[in-house]
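Narrative of activities, Objective 1.

The group set out to show that a structural description can be obtained from nothing but a protein's sequence at a throughput compatible with the screening campaign. Below is one input-output pair from the validation batch, recorded exactly as produced.
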Amino acid sequence: MKRIFALAGVAALALGAPLQAQDNGDPAAIVAAEADRTERVAGQLWEWAELGYLESRSSALLQDELAAEGFDVEVGIAEIPTAFVAEWGEGGPVIAILAEMDALPGINQSASASRDPVADKHAGHACGHNLFGAGSLTAAIAVKKWLEDTGTPGRIRLYGTPAEEGGSGKVYMTRAGMFDDVDIAIHWHADDENSAAARTSLANRSAKFRFTGISAHAAGAPERGRSALDGAEAMNMMANMMHEHMPQDARMHYVITSGGNAPNVVPDFAEVFYYVRHPEPEGVEAIWQRLEKAAEGAAMGTGTQVKWEVIHGNNPLLVNETLARAMDEKLRAVGGVDYTEEERAWAAQISESLGDAAKPLESAGDIQPYQKSLGYGSTDVGDVSWATPTVGVRTATWVPGTSAHSWQAVAASGHSIGHKGAQVAAKAMALMAAELFTNPELRAAAKAEFDAARGPDYQYKSLLGDRDPPLDYRR
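Output recorded for this entry:
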């Protein structure tokens, strides 16, 4: 289902004529004037903490903010109800900014500096996507106002991209051709440091392996049972043995999502959820074939049956050093995150909980050296980067030393230091977008590097095949 709406001629949000005149030509200053919006939207997304493909309120909030600023908004793209694209402007190049919004299941935390799970809340923004969504929103609105103030031709787009955490929302959007007419795409991510380094990522694929057996009384008639959990555990045992014989940069991990309900009942259903990662898509495919054989062998040996459903798959990030070096310049012009005394005290308490992983708090204000490197995470931004030249930035939204997917990340994502990091990212992205709109030589150089990296015979192939978006994978 799709709906398209636009609100034209809406007055700028409480900026006033003098401030607009002052900000004319400075996208970063416009971002600074939008700090209240960034904090408000980030805070609301953090409170809701909606899971992948279920981000109905979060997506609607971002859409409403954009529509109120005069963007044309199309909803339900790529057959995903919570995915949208918002556009303002005409002519010129098309510059896209990506916005994520989904939370992670099974981890939550208040904005306290000590461990404080929130009762009856089953998810949290442990990867900072509330900040991602709010910061990207602010950047897009700032660029729109800059285009309007300066009369610069071009179109700014914000893509609302659901389900990054294991749902591959951007892959379906890429597969549907939503980025085919984009000149450059910009993204960012929450982190514990500030960096615009050209860091690639691992390709990955996931699937839920579902074993079925025969239930029976575990004591009274064990010979009649065939344990689905035995099948899952046998598969896990073989997969763990595979770790010894995998490439150094490969990764494989799993969780048992269903294993039975009572010890005295032989379970007739079990499910295990696997991720496989490798720097190259071909490496994922090779390991995956071995994992499928392990599943089949486990079922054969335990007298059970197994089927599996591929849930998501991401290509690795195709870095563009032409764009990365330009983004590094913008980030250095903006600077890092400075703490108030109150924020420093809060951060110091978080830092104590990190143990040996803690870093000096002052490093939140530093910009890390530019370099090209391999990152061991995975992201569906990877598929976007094979459709159009793409550049990213990371900012210190978390206390230095904090790992993603931790309670400390949830806490900081709901705290003022997280909001400050989102503002830093928004400023860098807005400055980068302005440069791209006005510098055709930079766009051409980035496109030349992109074309050379893909090669003349490149054809896009997703790692999730032709399946439909798994809209219920988090239910």
